[in-house]
Design brief:
Layout lengths: L1 E3 L7 E3 L7 H32 L3 H12 L4 E3 H8 L3 H13 L3 E5 L7 E5 L1 H26 L1 H15 L8
Helix pairs in contact: 1-5, 2-5, 3-4, 5-6
GO molecular function: DNA-binding transcription factor activity
GO biological process, one term: response to stress
Pfam families: MarR_2
Length: 170
C-alpha cells in the first residue's frame, strides 16, 4: 500500500499504489461507491422481481422494452442493440420467452427479412406484475431514502453522461 501526499493535500492511502495524488484516490473511491451502491440496489431489486415475478433480469429487460415499443414488438437486431445483448444472446432469450408463451416471433409486415419479437397477452401480464414489484422496491429502497429531488438529479446526471437529451422508456 502506498501513502500519497501531494503538497497542500492530506495524506491518503492508495491501496494499489497507482494514483498520482489524493484527488485521484478520492475520485476513484467516489466512483466505486457509486458503482457498488448501484450494483447492490439493482441486484437486490432484480432478485425481488425474479422471486415475485419469475423473470430473470434479462427477461424483464426485454419484456419491458417490448411493452414500451410500438405495437409491443421490435426487430430482434434493435433489441440486441438497445439492451446491449449479443445477437446469439437475444435469440436464446427470445427462444426461452417464446417457450413460456410470453413472446412470439413475427415477420415484419414491411420487410419479410426482419424478424420481430412481440409480447403476447401473457407477456403483457407478466411485465405488469414484474413492474409493480420493481416499482414498489424502488419506492422503498431508492426514492424513500433519497427523496424525489435527489432521484431527479441523478436521472438528469446520468442522462447527461449518457448523452441523452430526452427520456427513454427502457
Amino acid at each position: 500500500m502506498t501513502v500519497t501526499r501531494v503538497e497542500g493535500e492530506q495524506e491518503q492511502a492508495d491501496p494499489a499504489g497507482c494514483c498520482s495524488g489524493v484527488a485521484d484516490t478520492e475520485l476513484l473511491s467516489r466512483w466505486f461507491q457509486i458503482y457498488t451502491g448501484m450494483q447492490r440496489i439493482t441486484g437486490d431489486l432484480l432478485e425481488e422481481v425474479e422471486r415475485g415475478g419469475g423473470l430473470s433480469a434479462p427477461e424483464f429487460q426485454m419484456l419491458w422494452h417490448l411493452s414500451a415499443a410500438p405495437q409491443r414488438q421490435a426487430p430482434m437486431n434493435e433489441i440486441s442493440r438497445l439492451l446491449g445483448f449479443s445477437t446469439a444472446g437475444t435469440t436464446k432469450l427470445v427462444d426461452r420467452l417464446s417457450a413460456t408463451g410470453l413472446v412470439e416471433r413475427r415477420t415484419s409486415p414491411t420487410d419479410r427479412r426482419v424478424i420481430l419479437a412481440g409480447l403476447t397477452d401473457a407477456g403483457v401480464a407478466a411485465t405488469a406484475q414484474a413492474a409493480v414489484i420493481l416499482a414498489t422496491g424502488l419506492r422503498e429502497r431508492f426514492v424513500g431514502p433519497l427523496g424525489e429531488e435527489r432521484v431527479d438529479a441523478l436521472v438528469d446526471a446520468f442522462r447527461l453522461l449518457a448523452g441523452e437529451s430526452d427520456s427513454c422508456p427502457g
